[in-house]
Amino acid sequence: xxxxxxxxxxxxxxxxxxxxxxxxxxxxxxxxxxxxxxxxxxxxxxxxxxxxxxxxxxxxxxxxxxxxxxxxxxxxxxxxxxxxxxxxxxxxxxxxxxxxxxxxxxxxxxxxxxxxx
Length: 117
Prior knowledge:
The chain is mostly beta strands. It folds into two domains: about 1-35, no CATH class; about 55-105, Roll (SH3 type barrels). About 5% of the residues lie in helices and about 35% in strands.
């Protein structure tokens, strides 16, 4: 219960992995996991990124050089109604946040196909 009270409520974007009939199971990156009973939340479309993923920030002409970083935070911005990603580039926290269309996924996200008939 302590983990859930530290991260809920917040603007963090949590990944709901499953429902076991009583509890929803949530993940935030590779190290944070908890489960809670059904409650209210805002469902967001998955943009293909998770906390801990390695990404490339695309270059922007002469304004920004491309670089490789790791996602450290995912937060929902109420004003723009979009997910903003905080990045760590080789141990250096990037001061600004990035949107999904500025990122290229480098982490292999292989998924198994459903075996439905």
